Inverse folding.
């Protein structure tokens, strides 16, 4: 197999020349305001104290008061880093010139290369090869640039100059601009930024690997469209996570029109959403839906202590705010336990008689009576063993906004809360109507995230609970590919292949006429099931009849199906004992980037309706398969809730393992699915199956 | 029946004295900064040009440079509006004094009244009665005040002074502060504000009715915990909607802990979430989950033209942004149709060769080449018949931020878009990384909503499509209550009651011993179903056996269930022909505020799992019931998709109508549920049922 799934060794090239070069040349620097070459020159020159900047332009004599060199060859020093921002026609030559001048890193801003497929894509590949041969690294082309706040490097369009713990790795320049803008609004600074563009050479995987060793980076925000070898991407994310730098991922492609756009954008093939989910699960990657959510999650991940359970204590001054918080937190699967009487009474002691202290805690005007009632209630919850995290919601932060004379006391209360956070093993998360209030600075300094929207706070908290309690499953090895006969289409061929892989089906015989059908039914024993073959949606079309109890009924059903559906053949099957069983769906789909993905879900009639699925990178162990099944919403039905008989989850798990192993070893299988897999108290039996060839 | 469901006539009291008084007295005015009496006095005095303000305080001689009167009786003019902001002990007397002084409106800021139930609640009721007798109106107590930007009235804590089209009606003061703060950030001004507090007299229903005739108000934002007579609330919302003033509702109580908080807050009983959903459906009310979402929706509702269908055209400069928009819009159930070739080519004409123009439209750098490419693409989509709305996403608004010299052209492009919007029958919605950019002012002036978050934009657009295409069903009359014998518990009594209401059950006989069971089975004919009675979760506990085919099997099953479950009796039933049928759940729950609520959903094993339900205020017509069923995700299974036989939705609808009618006429039924209702090609039959008495 050649392609993105070919295993690639994690490249650990030295990127010093990219992020901390001693010399930089900007090819295409411009004096014209509004041009990229002007932006880049201006931003680069702001780093003059750190390094020497050389502007290159064939026609200008001076730009921004700096001398200009007509070509790279004229630059008096070896440019460690060369930024190319000229028309696409000259790009290839400019890369060659940069290598000839001794560049160790090249940033290709130039766009419109590789967007159209064909020759430009070839050009990119060839150029990337040339760059690697020369021991250099190429960023882009079609990118926004790079920045490093620790080294004072800003070779990008946009303001990536405020230092902080967030690294931004993005295939889209404009989404990077949105990420940095939203971060700035929330007071979150940047460690490094790289706009990957078409990823001709440097890609998201290598960049994340590099950030794993980058001290100032604490969280990595990645926008990726083309994951290349997706499993290597996941391994890099795992390494980063182990180094204490979790990856928050934004990607696209869950809609067909998005794929249309992404294809046209960078020539990338977008991985389907479900495969990304499996990858995130395996790599402990937090997936976000928008730039805002990326920043929301990053702020939460920077908490010094993450929540170790689902129990939340809520504090606010106002019944509306705390009730709303309770609703939204519960809606995210978090719990608000009623506080013990001693604790509730202790909190109540300094509050008005109408305060609620059972959780949520409503100060009921007590916040205005004595502002330290806020910090006292927060501290009481942070210090108790009855909750795992604390949420402060509502007006706090606003007293100083409405009356500047209250700024001092509000800040003192914030300081008291920050001190309580530092002494506690539990995190505090704040939602405030006034999230930007300077009086909240002590909380920000203690890495307490402050949201303007309680829904965002609730979502982040739930994600953090999942993040801290879920140990990523890691990336399973694909193992050797099995040589085998090509997949034969058809129901019985599929059954045989799956049976040989270890899956159980009810006894069945293929027949084409009434006499053979009668013989088969007699041999199996009435009642039997009758299926008309040759259609994928047999049961929808009335091509399945269960409980055929007699020869007469069999004849009637055969005649009916023959006249309506004209099937090439029929299957006569033993009726599975459905009573008390639960139908699952088990399938494997091969993803271009992430390889075979195992899907387990509620099956049968409700498979698509319920949307109750769990996914994993295949292959899986039996324990992992069982964990997937137990994570389904339908799980209580399988595990024996309400006094019902527990079903054979072990058999179902083994069936999933077998199916995954088959798909992993046979790259010619694009999709394989058992639906339903009937799970009974004693075993799991496949009632229908299909295979799609690659 | 006495209680909130007693029909109340829509009160249409004159609220002029509340929102445009000629004279105002503030009882409890204070010179101490940080006290409510100080805030209110300061805010009130800002309206001195509009009316005469009298400060009342027993101990101060002068406050804020104004004379102070020791009691209301000392005030030289009749105070049309009296604001009371003193301790709760003196509140009752202050109300009496206000009425004695001739007040037409009273605003009770004073809190801690009625929060504890019992006597204070009685006090409130008595006071409200006294106020009504005197022909006056009382706001609160326990509220933040009132404001009217057209009349220059601000008798509230907080900044409710920027005029605009949004009316805020809130039971929670602090959530009102959040609403006004978020509105201000988005450039949305306020028409009127009223903090309802405990709603002792003036409530949300009356306030909405009053706003229906308030010219400056175009959208009503309501935060309500206690709906009182919920159906009257819905009727008021319908009247407001008909007057072009839709209601956006924020409420709480979907979690148990929220209910705990809300109870302690205003002594209100919070209506369960599902009943609120039914109410919103009936009243064309848009329900929001947070203050942010209220404002998001309000901005959308102010669009001069609402979308008339689900088709969206997306424009942006950058593949990442447009792909993300496509994903999130599709995720909201909207469609991005591929544009026709002529239109796509027309848009492509002035764009770079790598631009995508199939929808989403990615200018691919064309925005920077010529900024009017933005407005041209937007206008082309606004003018075409291929989409119902247009979304602009990404960087636009940022050019001027990054380079002030580009402000003029960016504003010109915004102006061109605004002109295109005004000429078009379709709405434009904008997401911008720079939502506050002044260059976007022409769009704001054309009532184009601008969001900072593409997910918010997508959600609002989907809600607007639903709002403009969904004609609210209105509030059905409850009709006369039927006198009848009290509900008898038990399976067979329930069956008989429901059968008499018109529902069909399979033939069944109740038996207590083996001999009777054999006789019953023989009479019905094998195979039969056997149910052990006396437990609500029969099937979970192995108390249901289907397809009992012989006397021997019957004996064995009876012995097994008897030994395990010790049921008081058994039911022997005809086996329903399940093949090809679909199981629904049909139920009615009586809500304290909104009365009987019909619930229709996917039933059987998956009822709770799938969460696939539709709700309505009962009773319903057969058409309405059918519409509810057709709105389920499971609907394609019933309607005959993929060549399957259509099921008898008519019978299922009639069953829902019958169940709703029964529950409506019998207030002693708190809950009644059929699950499953088996819908077959020929009829709908109830396979199990339960009733809970009120």
């Amino acid at each position: 197999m050649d392609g993105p799934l070919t295993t690639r060794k994690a490249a650990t090239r030295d990127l010093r020349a990219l992020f901390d070069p001693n010399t930089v040349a900007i090819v295409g620097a411009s004096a014209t305001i509004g041009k990229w070459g002007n932006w880049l020159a201006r931003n680069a020159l702001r780093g003059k104290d750190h390094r020497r900047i050389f502007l290159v332009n064939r026609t200008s004599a001076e730009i921004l008061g700096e001398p200009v060199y007509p070509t790279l060859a004229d630059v008096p020093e070896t440019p460690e880093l060369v930024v190319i921002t000229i028309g696409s026609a000259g790009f290839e030559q400019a890369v060659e010139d940069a290598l000839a001048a001794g560049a160790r890193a090249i940033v290709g801003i130039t766009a419109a290369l590789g967007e159209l497929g064909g020759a430009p894509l070839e050009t990119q590949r060839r150029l990337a090869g040339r760059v690697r041969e020369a021991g250099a690294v190429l960023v882009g082309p079609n990118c926004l640039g790079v920045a490093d706040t620790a080294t004072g490097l800003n070779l990008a369009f946009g303001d990536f100059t405020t230092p902080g713990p967030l690294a931004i790795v993005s295939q889209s320049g404009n989404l990077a601009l949105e990420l940095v803008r939203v971060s700035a609004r929330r007071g979150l600074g940047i460690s490094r930024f790289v706009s990957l563009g078409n990823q001709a050479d440097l890609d998201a995987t290598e960049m994340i690997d590099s950030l794993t060793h980058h001290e100032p980076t604490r969280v990595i925000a990645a926008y990726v469209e083309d994951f290349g070898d997706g499993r290597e991407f996941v391994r890099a994310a795992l390494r980063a996570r182990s180094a204490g730098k979790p990856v928050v991922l934004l990607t696209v492609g869950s809609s067909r029109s998005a794929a249309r756009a992404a294809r046209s954008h960078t020539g990338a093939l977008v991985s389907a959403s479900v495969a990304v989910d499996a990858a995130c699960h395996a790599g402990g990657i937090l997936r976000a839906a928008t730039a805002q959510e990326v920043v929301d999650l990053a702020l939460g991940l920077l908490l010094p202590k993450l929540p170790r359970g689902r129990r939340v204590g809520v504090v606010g001054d106002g019944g509306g705010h705390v009730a709303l918080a309770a609703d939204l937190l519960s809606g995210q699967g978090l719990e608000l336990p009623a506080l013990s009487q001693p604790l509730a009474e202790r909190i109540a002691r300094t509050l008005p008689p109408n305060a609620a202290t059972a959780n949520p805690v409503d100060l009921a005007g007590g916040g205005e009576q004595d502002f330290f009632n806020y910090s006292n209630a927060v501290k009481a919850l942070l210090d108790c063993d009855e909750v795992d995290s604390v949420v402060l919601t509502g007006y706090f932060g606003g007293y100083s906004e409405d009356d500047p004379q209250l700024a001092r006391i509000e800040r003192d209360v914030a300081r008291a809360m920050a001190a309580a956070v530092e002494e506690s093993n539990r995190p505090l998360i704040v939602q405030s109507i006034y999230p930007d209030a300077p009086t909240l600075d002590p909380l920000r300094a203690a890495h307490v995230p402050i949201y303007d929207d309680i829904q965002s706070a609730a979502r982040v908290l739930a994600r953090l609970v999942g993040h801290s309690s879920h140990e990523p499953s890691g990336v399973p090895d694909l193992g050797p590919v099995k040589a085998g006969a090509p997949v034969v289409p058809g129901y019985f061929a599929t059954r045989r292949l799956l049976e040989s892989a270890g899956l159980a089906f009810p006894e069945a015989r293929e027949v084409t006429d009434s006499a053979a059908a009668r013989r088969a039914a007699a041999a199996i024993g009435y009642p039997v099931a009758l299926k008309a073959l040759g259609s994928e949606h047999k049961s929808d079309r009335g091509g399945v009849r269960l409980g055929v109890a007699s020869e007469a009924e069999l004849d009637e059903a055969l005649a009916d199906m023959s006249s309506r559906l004209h099937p090439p053949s029929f299957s006569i099957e033993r009726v599975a004992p459905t009573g008390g069983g639960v139908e699952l769906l088990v399938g494997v789909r091969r993803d271009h980037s992430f390889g075979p993905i195992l899907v387990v879900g509620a099956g049968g009639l409700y498979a698509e309706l319920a949307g109750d699925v769990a996914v994993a990178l295949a292959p899986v162990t039996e324990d992992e398969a069982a964990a997937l099944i137990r994570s389904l919403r339908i799980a209580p039905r399988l595990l024996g809730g309400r006094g019902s008989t527990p079903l054979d989850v072990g058999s179902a798990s083994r069936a999933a393992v077998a199916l995954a192993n088959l798909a992993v070893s046979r790259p010619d299988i694009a999709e394989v699915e058992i639906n339903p897999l009937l799970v009974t108290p004693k075993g799991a039996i496949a009632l229908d199956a299909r295979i799609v060839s690659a």
